[in-house]
Design brief:
By secondary structure, this protein is α+β, with helices and mostly antiparallel strands. The chain has one domain: L-amino peptidase D-ALA esterase/amidase (4-Layer Sandwich). The protein contains 3 helices and 8 strands. It has a 4-stranded mixed β-sheet with strand order 3-4-7-8, covered by helices on one side. A hairpin with a 2-residue loop joins strand 1 and strand 2. Helix 2 crosses helix 3. The longest helix is centred in the middle third of the chain and has 15 residues. The radius of gyration is 17 Å and the shape is globular.
Amino acid sequence: MLELGTWTFRPGPRNSITDVEGVRVGHVTLYEGSGPLIPGRGPVRTGVTVVLPHGGNIYREKVPAAVAVFNGFTKAIGLVQVEELGVLETPVALTNTLNVGLVADGLVEYSVGVAPEIGVTAPTVNPVVLECNDGYLNDIQGRHVKQHHVLEAIQRAGEGFEEGSVGAGTG
């Protein structure tokens, strides 16, 4: 039971973020190698997670959004524009600290693919990427999450998804 002020809400049938109509989640998990850390090579324990707020074209059908920063020690991308304009125009992606830029590139690639007017006849796109440092368990310097992993996570997104040590939560 979630109580907010005078309102009380019962969890949905899955007790999940995807109980909200249209919301989907996708992961790509990268788990390779063993033994001692060799920076730039492995072992790899990381991934990417994406949250899609609806099943349509997010750039063309922007979603009202807000920002609440509770730990300002972050290397996120896109939060300032969300705070300023109050809308989300890409899936929200999560990954490790040093992969934020590459994952943002993946969101831009996805967005331009579904809305080719971006940057030509329409404004540019604001990718939103959040992070956590998985350097203790992962070869974070290797920056193993690539653009194609972001696209794959988006393709895999659904209402039913794994929880736990998967996607961005791997490391």
